[in-house]
Design a protein that fits this description.
Number of helices: 16
Helix content: 55-70%
Strand order of the largest sheet: 1-2-4-3
Largest sheet: 4 strands, antiparallel
Order of helices and strands: HHHHHHHEEHEEHHHHHHHH
Number of domains: 3
Distance between the termini: 47 Å
Structural class: mainly alpha
Radius of gyration: 23 Å
Number of strands: 4
Shape: globular
């Protein structure tokens, strides 16, 4: 990625050139738009996209990345930014899994990891060692218990990892790097570029609506979600990591208002960077169909405030002890046939 950025800087084009030499840059812009389009449509499928082998195609692939970034920035849409960053990161991770250890090490150290190869046969299957602060920086958003520091070999401040684990951590590093590149604004773009930007905006709106319709049964009124739950929902929908408490609150809330386990699982599967086995286990555990048999309700408002999830209370929140109470009150603002009050008891939870 570092080399690609330097390569593009060496080309040194500007917006005027994009307009003046439109025929020359058309294949680059087409590929850039397709990168973003494919990422919006299906993150998993995009992650399996293989690089092109022909020299001309290789040039197009390299130069199309900064142009794709340009298009995404131009949309000014957080959903597009998060989704594109996630898709490119997943693609990078998939490609890195096929590389030699030395290449993985080179990429890791381009991000300042100061990692090293492990050549001690007695430490197999570990191939890499890196300082634990770097490990924590990139693993804190992971919800699988296997990523907890306590579950890794730690010697003299270094965490020992397999090549696959390093690829996964690099995926998170790449995601944050790209999100950083996207965190800017462009005052104006040429009309030809804006036409592509507007197409991406329209596609994103359609995709968000598709996600909403697929995830939500007819009897659920998403517009009545309390702001605390809506905040977590929007974050997960955009492919951004949410805290463990946030995911628990969202999952238990959706189950409590009438969504089935499969509805909830489909939501996380469609829009989130998730572990299928772990996600299904957690949904079933919260629903009470696995483990102790206890069906969990969302955490109380006081708990959500403590964890920084309740940050913008609404008028309907006044005096409420649980997000379900706020949801039930907000439903009164919607037509009767959209309500499902029997699925929302005013209940307290621990």
């Amino acid at each position: 990625m570092k080399e690609a950025a330097e390569h593009v800087r060496g080309i040194g084009i500007d917006f005027d050139e994009l307009e003046r030499d439109s025929d020359f840059y058309l294949p680059f812009l087409d590929r850039a738009e397709k990168r973003v389009t494919d990422a919006l449509v299906d993150v998993s499928a995009y992650a399996q996209t293989q690089p092109r082998d022909e020299p001309k195609d290789y040039e197009i692939e390299i130069f199309s990345f900064p142009l794709a970034v340009l298009l995404v920035v131009g949309t000014e849409e957080s959903f597009i930014k998060s989704r594109y960053a996630l898709a490119e990161a997943k693609r990078a991770s998939a490609l890195l899994r096929g590389e030699e250890k030395e290449k993985l090490l080179e990429v890791a150290n381009n991000f300042g990891w100061d990692a090293r190869l492990v050549n001690d046969f007695s430490l197999q299957p570990y191939s890499f060692a890196l300082r634990f602060p770097v490990f924590l920086k990139n693993s804190t958003g992971f919800h699988d218990k296997n990523w907890k520091l306590v579950n890794h070999l730690l010697i003299d401040g270094e965490v020992y990892l397999t090549a696959r684990e390093v690829s996964r951590l690099l995926e998170e590093e790449v995601r944050k790097y790209i999100e950083g590149r996207l965190d800017t604004k462009i005052k104006s773009l040429p009309s030809a570029i804006m036409a592509r930007v507007n197409r991406l905006r329209q596609l994103a709106a359609e995709k968000q609506e598709q996600i909403r319709l697929e995830a939500m049964p007819d009897r659920v009124v998403m517009e009545a979600f309390p702001s605390c739950i809506k905040g977590v929902y929007d974050r997960v929908s955009a492919g951004r990591p949410a805290s463990h408490m946030g995911r628990f609150a969202l999952t238990s809330f959706m189950l409590s208002i009438g969504m089935s386990e499969e509805d909830v699982f489909k939501f996380f599967r469609s829009v989130s960077d998730f572990n299928e086995r772990m996600t299904r286990y957690q949904v079933e555990h919260i629903a009470g169909t696995r483990g102790s048999g206890t069906k969990y309700t969302p955490p109380n408002c006081s708990t959500l405030r403590t964890h920084g999830i309740c940050i913008s209370p609404e008028p309907e929140c006044n005096g409420a002890v649980n997000p379900l109470v706020c949801y039930k009150r907000k439903l009164k603002n919607f037509p009767e046939d959209e309500q499902s009050e029997d699925t929302m008891p005013e209940t307290k939870s621990d």
